[in-house]
């Protein structure tokens, strides 16, 4: 039973933290902390997406300012 609990926690905790991060980013919080999971699975892919999301928002804002809205 203990092994299932540990495995479940290793999956659910990162997903909950990443969901919170994406929620904060979607509200425009620039100070949202992004957890650093260096994994070769879906959780690692979500982490990379969270790292890129603020940059994409910044680029879109710059382009809008130049009249070149994406």
Structure description:
- It is a single chain.
- The chain has two helices and no strands.
- The chain is an all-alpha fold and 70 residues long.
- The chain is elongated.
- The termini are far apart.
> What is the percent of helical residues?
over 70%
DSSP summary, beta strand count:
0
Distance between the termini: 51 Å
User: Helical stretch count?
Assistant: 2
Strand content: under 5%
- What oligomeric state best describes the polypeptide chains here? single chain
Mean pLDDT: 81
Largest sheet: none
Shape: elongated
Order of helices and strands: HH
Low-confidence stretches: none
Structural category is mainly alpha
Radius of gyration: 16 Å
List keywords for this structure.
70 residues, mainly alpha, 2 helices
Write the layout of secondary structure elements.
Blueprint (H helix, E strand, L loop, with lengths): L1 H25 L15 H24 L5
